[in-house]
Design goal:
Elements lengths: L2 H4 L5 H8 L6 E4 L6 H8 L6 E5 L15 E4 L6 H6 L6 E7 L4 H5 L25 H7 L2 H10 L6 H14 L5 H7 L9 H17 L1 H15 E11 L2 H13 L7 E2 L5 E2 L2 E3 L9 H6 L7 E7 L5
Parallel strand pairs: 1-2, 1-4, 2-3, 4-5
Antiparallel strand pairs: 5-9, 6-7, 8-9
Length: 306
């Protein structure tokens, strides 16, 4: 499975420039996927440099470059610090995270990430994990479903959507994506069907895979991993993720709480390299429509805070 069929890397040049790669540095790609960013980082490393790439999806391992300067780690990035310490790595010079779902996941219909067509209602990033999206829609209470659709899907009248699902499952438990699409038809806006279903499926995916909690854990670990002047480069595709990243880079915590020193001066472990998020060019969006919601933020570890 090649990179072209797996995933087109988004804002590739911007990500590489943001990492400010040193040829002899140690770097981490938290989301290897198709290996596009991983391969480009390796092009900028010398013989003494090394790159560690993580991915929890078994399909991704086939994309790992055969390079002595590269180590693939089959793991969720929430465990990045422990995974690196097992390999004798305490500090790194840069961390890259592309939080987008790869084209491979949407195009592999059997994985159940897409509302187009029909497949088992799966949505597991790690296909070896147990619970599926079907388990969520079949077991969560009305209130719990409404909450995740509001928080992770940013949908309106989520109690109506939850009611549709609960009523449908009383007749027959959900097993496929088409059954879910059919169940929520009474709540689906005719003129914005694709947008509505995208947000609905997104909310289930984020909940199932614990994506927000995993991001919080990875961000917090980056503080302990980055060397002074090391770069944290994060590309998000959802406003909730982007808000977390923005808060973290501004303050060093996911809540965005600015700490102050004895003299009342604001303290932060990062210097912002990007005051505003970098977005894809019109040309890139035209070539790769899935990049349109990408937001890239970059921060540098302050030396005297490391």
């Amino acid at each position: 499975m090649g990179i072209d069929t797996y995933h087109i890397p988004v804002m590739l040049d911007d990500c590489i420039e943001a990492l400010n790669i040193k040829p002899d540095g140690v770097y981490v790609d938290l989301t290897m996927g198709g290996g596009g960013h991983t391969r480009e980082i390796l092009k900028h490393l010398g013989p003494e440099g090394h790159l560690y790439s993580l991915d929890q999806d078994p399909d991704a391992e086939a994309n790992a470059p055969d390079d002595e300067r590269h180590t693939f780690i089959a793991s969720n990035f929430r465990f990045v610090r422990g995974a690196l310490r097992l390999r004798g790595v305490e500090r790194v010079d840069g961390i890259l995270a592309d939080l987008g779902v790869s084209s491979h996941h949407f195009d592999a219909k059997h994985r159940g990430f897409s509302f187009r067509g029909d497949a088992l209602l799966d949505m597991r990033m790690n296909s070896r994990a147990g619970r599926t999206a079907a388990d969520i829609v079949n077991t969560y209470t009305n209130d719990a479903l409404a909450d995740i659709f509001a928080q992770y899907g940013e949908l309106d009248t989520t109690w109506k959507i939850a009611n549709c699902i609960v009523r449908a499952r009383e007749l027959k438990p959900f097993t496929t994506t088409a059954e879910l699409v059919e169940a929520v038809k009474p709540c689906t806006p005719a003129k914005e069907e694709a947008k509505f279903l995208t947000k609905l499926f997104q909310a289930l995916r984020i909940e199932l895979n614990g994506e927000i909690e995993a991001l919080k854990m990875a961000l917090e670990q980056s503080l302990k991993l980055l060397n002074p002047e090391g770069r944290l480069v994060v590309m998000s595709y959802h406003s909730l993720e982007d808000r977390l990243v923005k808060n973290f880079m501004r303050s060093g915590n996911c809540e965005g709480k600015i700490e102050k020193d004895f003299f009342g001066r604001a303290t932060t472990p990062f210097k912002l390299i990007t005051r505003k998020a970098i977005v894809p060019s019109d040309e890139e969006i035209e070539q790769n429509p899935r990049s349109r919601s990408a937001r890239l933020r970059v921060a540098e570890r302050i030396a005297n805070e490391a």
